[in-house]
Specification:
It is a single chain. By secondary structure, the protein is mostly helical. Helices cover 56% and strands 0% of the residues. The protein is built from ten helices and no strands. The longest helix is centred in the last third of the chain and has 25 residues. The chain is globular and about 60 Å long. The N terminus is likely disordered.
Length: 238
């Protein structure tokens, strides 16, 4: 559970604000009070400023939540253990534990990773940043997987992480059901489309985009179910 904080503990007060400090304050606010209680007015109050002063740096509550999601996932690839990542199994284990650490450190905020609109429909939470997907695909390709295997691993790995970690977040008191759609307090644009992404810096994502866009949800469900049944059968037969 996040440590208890006072209303102004570790939050930047008044002058010297920028987008990074405001997003960091929003994440701390959500850790303490939950997403449903976050508003531009409430955040401004704990920052000791007028709500209008926040709009110099964020477009509104929706833009603020987008910033929180980006901050949660920022730096994940830099945190991966190079030694463990020498093998694809070690890479996936290290990545899984890093995402789990985020979920356990920020259980109230982690459901945002699952519920916010992704920048493209083929980006799957919780591995929903272009940087993460590029690293994931490139690493598995470097370890000998072909295109279909790498994309299939991305789908299966994302599904496993999302289901497991949302359960863990819920067990720690997080609200995982969709909240009422808020009335945005600014002109924030919410990503809903697939045509505005710049993938020039992510060659693997760009090359594998057609495969990433394919819908294999029914097949994935059946494979996951069969895997579970096989595991239970093995345990019962021992």
């Amino acid at each position: 559970m996040p440590p208890e904080r006072g209303p102004a503990d570790a939050l930047p007060q008044g002058r010297g604000l920028n987008r990074g400090k405001i997003v960091d304050a929003a994440l701390r606010f959500i850790d303490d009070r939950g997403t449903s209680n976050l508003s531009m007015r409430n955040l401004a109050q704990v920052l000791g400023v007028e709500a209008m002063s926040l709009y110099r740096y964020v477009k509104g509550r929706e833009d603020l939540l987008e910033g929180v999601v980006a901050q949660l996932l920022s730096g994940v690839t830099a945190s991966l253990d190079d030694q463990l990542s020498e093998h694809w199994q070690g890479f996936l284990q290290t990545l899984a534990h890093e995402i789990r650490r985020i979920a356990l450190d920020h259980p109230n905020a982690f459901p945002l990773v699952a519920t916010r609109h992704p920048a493209a429909p083929w980006l799957r939470p919780p591995l929903r940043s272009i940087e993460l997907v590029e690293t994931f695909l490139r690493t598995l390709r470097e370890h000998g997987m072909d295109d279909e295997q790498a994309v299939g691993a991305y789908r299966a790995f994302s599904s496993f992480l999302l289901g497991q970690l949302l359960l863990e977040a819920a067990a720690r008191g997080a609200a995982t059901s969709p909240a009422e759609e808020p009335v945005d307090e600014g002109g924030a644009s919410i990503p809903r489309e697939d045509g505005s992404l710049d993938l020039s810096g992510s060659p693997e994502v760009l090359r594998l985009r057609p495969l990433l866009s394919e819908d294999h949800s029914e097949e994935e469900f059946e494979i996951s179910l069969e895997t579970l049944l096989d595991r239970l059968d093995t345990e019962l037969s021992q």
